[in-house]
Design a protein that fits this description.
Elements lengths: L2 H34 L7 H14 L2 H9 L13 H33 L6 H8 L2 H28 L4 H15 L3 H21 L2 H31 L3 H26 L18 H6 L2 H18 L7
Amino acid sequence: MNIHEKFFSKIGANYLILGVTAIIFQIILINILNATHPEYLGDINIISLLSSICNYILPFPIFYWLMKKLDAVKIEKRSVDAKTFLIYISITITLMWIGNIIGLIITMLLSGAIQSDISNPVQELINSTDILFNLVIICIMAPIFEEIFFRKLLIDRTIKYGAKLSIILSALLFGLFHGNLNQFFYAFLMGGFFAYVYVKTGKITYTIILHAIVNLMGSVISIQIANAAMNLQTAFNPIDLLTITIYLIALITFLIIGTYGLTKFDKAKFNGEKTEISLKKPLKTMLVNYGMILFILFFIIEMIIQIFGLELII
């Protein structure tokens, strides 16, 4: 491997270590909990909180240390006005819906092929946990750590190879890291857009806010709207009707603005201004190396396990 292939191999290996250490921490803490307070294993909120700690907080020092060993480039910071940020929000929500529709179609086709339903672990988690949990973990903790992991620490180190390559890699790693087919498509699309926003502005706070908004819509607001719709089926309630109406108007508005924003995306070119190192075969250099191949295989296997409903024996 040349020096650039070795660089991307280290990137892939670091993200593989991030995924593996999260699993190791989960095994350790679940076994400790089983030995000390086995009754807590039946509480979905406690287990989900434990999983979040293992996915984000505990691996963070290790991953941060690994990534800091790679040279980084400081991205120039630029602010955007309220109109532009509204367009960013709308594009994010539009991409979420497009990705969800693609994921739904693919999983339906696969379900028919294997003659078995493919579960959506994230939706099951959202439906099973408290709203407070969804607010703290899904809407606050996850956006902060995931944006640091997949935008800040990654793009600062890969932007020297060009904005396009850095954005594609951020989207791919982010999509695969979720480990299930249901989330891959919208995570890939939104991850790419978050990467674009970070490259364009240099401000991770923007992508954290965008990430938090879309997670809020998917984990809290959507549940409230579903509950309001169910209530209307049994008895008319003007508050529930008003809630659903406002939600639909807001959603349609976001989708119209987001679609318009996407049609103008061909103008969002960086024209090589971020590129310090030009690669003859960028995709091959980025993906065809030991670390990246192992990372991709690991998470594809995790997706296959999820698709077929298999359980790892630990």
